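yo

u said u wanted the structure for the complex thing, so here. seqs first:
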Amino acid sequence: MNQLTESPDHVRHTGHPRKGFFTDTSICIGCKACEVACKEWNRNPHDSEYELLKSSYDNTGSLGADTWRHVAFIEQDREQIGRARESGRALVSLGMPSFGPPGQDQASNLAGADTTPPDTSDFRWLMSSDVCKHCTNAGCLDVCPTGALFRTEHGTVVVQDDVCNGCGTCVAGCPFGVIERRSDGTAGPKAKRDFTPGEQAPTRNVGVAQKCTLCHDRIVDGQTPACAQACPTTSIKYGEREDMVAAAKERVAQLHAQGLTEARLYGANDSDGVGGTGSVFLLLDEPEVYGLPPDPRVPTADLPRMFKRAGIAAAGMLAAATAAFLVGGRA
Amino acid sequence: MTVSGFDDYRPPEPPRRRKLGGKLRRAGTGEGRGEVPVVPEAEFTSYYGRPVVKPPPWGDPIAVYLFLGGVAGGSALLGVGGQLTGRPILCRNSRLAALAAVGVGAVALVADLGRPERFLNMLRTIKPTSPMSLGSWILTAFSAGAGVSAVSEIDRMTGSRLPLGPLRRLLRVLEGPAGVEAAVFAAPLSVYTAVLLSDTANPTWNAAREDLPFVFVSSASLAAAGLAMITTPAEEAGPARALAVLGVAGELTAIRFMEKNMDPVAAEPLHLDGPGRMLAWSERLAVAGGAGALIGGRHRLTAAISGVVLLGASALTRFGILRAGIRSTENPRYTIEPQKSRLAARRRAGVIHDSITTSE
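structre next:
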């Protein structure tokens, strides 16, 4: 990445390790406990009129200002399962470089194992709990003009509610469509749904950009983020990012050894367009099936080039104005 | 896929691959055929057709600001030119135009904030990675120079009736340097908004990053020149007419280069529906206004009409580009297809280390 782009390295002096999630979607049961725990802990308002979205059991829709965990539901038939398995196999056969310790080539381990895939079932349900990626090179943080978005001592990216002026640049800057500006109070909790009967809880941080904080208020006290704490199947794991990536690599190798070539990691590669993500995922199909971008790139990666082009354009404008006075002078 | 009788009520699944009319299908889809693809060719799948990236909450006030920021920048350049070449009316009108445009533009900018009362937080820090931060500083520096030089003009127009006291002499001394200072920040003011739009994950704006700055400075030049052709008598507006013609030529060229360099899928929103019509009309108006300035610019009425047409062209360009970007986030295809094809292209070229999806 270029010299401009920020990364968690600059807060390494704090001595805190970088924290992250590993979301293993192969053991997600779609209970949405993470969504509920997140809403309750962070006191986020509800974000719809309880409408049915006609997308399997997903009536949340997507991540946004009021939804910091979102469980996706995808229903697939035999043909789609086969295609996912093939695309995963193609990924393995690309000869992706191994990121494990040298001498432990997992691909060669796989070659020796019995990788006959289990019988393909007629139907499967993919369930995946999506969350802010807490990118190594975070687009939202880079483009924030006020400094409201900052890198915490845990290597996560958090909005300072009292600094953000709601300009919305971060919303456009996020390659994953995570951060959003909280709209006016229309989506506030209804009195009848609130904890205190007859008293409406005010919507906090209206007009301000909002997203997952990786429960910064919990992890500073050594607590586990609400979603990971609530997850009944340990599909959401929380810990030091290095451990999370190691666990993810171990798990995907295990699934590959069972012949489940559709398993793949998302965000575990530090050479990708966002420098790797703090929230690593194990997916069972292409990322776009889950609504994730297949090749995200932090926009500021190209910023020096953009500044250069803008500089040339500005010089051109000055030249045009000078020329106009030279030509217009004779008239 | 039905597994039980109850599932008969299930709504039909959206087709996995969206078939598109031949018109939208890009001609270059077949590129790279003939060789055995390592990975399947880019195919469009999405999560229930929902967007992948979010549109920024930028409405019409931001488009108005893009337009007025350009008008202000171009006007300051015409103002300093008039100041240095002895065209007092062009200088006066351009200075006033610069202050008015930047004033209204800044109000539009603040109005679109989620927390307008915190607009000063923009100046908490100077962040080179944030075009919005740099832009706020450019806007502030520009406004200072434009303000001083314009207030001096207002004072002169009112016969020195502004209650300035001893500050009047200081104002007269400063107005020249202030006009030059504004002119220094004029081109950055006109161009930074292009970087602001391109430095995002927005499919259309980001794909336009190579050439959008050229479109924006051209649009700013022709708009400011158009305004000067309305306000200034023809004998002093010669440079404005020349700048208008140069701006039109620049914009027509830059738009073509921009679309040629963009991913064909990401460029589609520039041609569809409302934004597409706006940009098409912007081009027609720019041609008409440029021709008017070139041929009939010395006739006062023709010049004024051409000026209005040019301002309209610039406004349509800004609204069109802004809305095309917003539209490009509504359909996940514009995010997913260009990303899949660039990933596939890198893999064909043997670059396999930088994918976010890995098998181990």
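The beta strands of chain A are 19-24, 69-77, 123-131, 149-151, 157-159, 180-181, 209-210, 236-240, 264-266, 279-283. Residues 300-331 of chain A form one domain.
cya
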